[in-house]
Amino acid sequence: MAAAARWLRAAAGLGGRFCRMTLKDVNLTTKQPLCQFVQRKPFVPSIVAYNTVRCMFIQTQDTPNPNSLKFIPGRQVLESRTMDFSTPAAAFCSPLARQLFRIEGVKSVFFGPDFITVTKVSEDWDWNLLKPDIYATIMDFFASGLPVVTEEAPRTDTAASEDDDEVVLMIKELLDTRIRPTVQEDGGDVIYKGFEDGIVHLKLQGSCTNCPSSIITLKNGIQNMLQFYIPEVEGVEQVVDDEDGVEKEANST
């Protein structure tokens, strides 16, 4: 109960802390990410890339997933939604995602409103070797003036529809107003996939995909919050993609 209470306060936006650091005579104020629902490792200050020609700062922030890193370009990436590109084929609608997939060692790409999460293939790949190419790709792309995504980009939000009943509407509202903003602080997102027989089906994206603490996030964080506000919710199950990109329910306990 204490962990759930702490997560509720975190999701409500309380207890935010800021830290100030100095790096190469540049003062930065970076927002410390919210706790990963139950436990989080200590905050690691972000690294800043500065290109004197393009005059663009790019900050990096660790995520709970050691194979995912959050890149903050200091400008809007997507207006108000998120997009997940789990494979190069899925990046057909994003010139930026396609460029990032050309970097050897990049496994997946995720876009948030003001950040880009890049996931590497495995822990064998050193971020110190990958980051220079990622920095250069992001800076070159924004200097080109091309759109981040094209018009044929699919929608993956949790917008309400006419077919939603009262319980589903409450679930979607809670996801959009309390849960998703907290998850996005860690470079990921959670997408509503359905509600059946008391079970809410959700898909974790970005840094939350294959994260060691994803089950804790799902059960001790998201499930507890949904059950606290919506008695009809009996549990939460994760939906994942198989090797062919087809969604299926994860086998979690």
Task: Give an overview of the whole structure.
The protein is α+β, with helices and mostly antiparallel strands and 253 residues long. Helix content is 28%, strand content 27%. It contains 5 helices and 12 strands. The protein has helices at 2-11, 95-101, 127-144, 166-185, 214-229; strands at residues 18-23, 26-31, 48-51, 56-62, 68-72, 83-85, 106-111, 116-120, 188-196, 199-206, 235-241, 247-249. The strands form 3 sheets. A 6-stranded antiparallel β-sheet has the order 3-4-5-8-7-6, covered by helices on one side. A hairpin with a 4-residue loop joins strand 7 (106-111) and strand 8. Helix 1 (2-11) packs across helix 5 and helix 2 (95-101) packs antiparallel against helix 3 (127-144). The longest helix is centred in the C-terminal third of the chain and has 20 residues, at 166-185. The model is unreliable at 1-6 and 11-45 (pLDDT under 50).
Give a quick set of tags describing it:
253 residues; 6-stranded antiparallel sheet; 4-stranded mixed sheet; alpha+beta
Biggest sheet details: 6 strands, antiparallel
Regions with pLDDT < 50 over 5+ consecutive residues? 1-6, 11-45
Instruction: Label the overall shape.
Output: globular
Task: Tell me the β content.
Answer: 25-35%
Encode the helix/strand succession as letters: HEEEEEEHEEHHEEHEE
Secondary structure class reads alpha+beta
- Provide the residue-averaged pLDDT: 78
Q: SSE layout and pairings?
A:
Layout: H1 2-11, E1 18-23, E2 26-31, E3 48-51, E4 56-62, E5 68-72, E6 83-85, H2 95-101, E7 106-111, E8 116-120, H3 127-144, H4 166-185, E9 188-196, E10 199-206, H5 214-229, E11 235-241, E12 247-249
Parallel strand pairs: 10-11
Antiparallel strand pairs: 1-2, 3-4, 4-5, 5-8, 6-7, 7-8, 9-10, 11-12
Helix pairs in contact: 1-5, 2-3
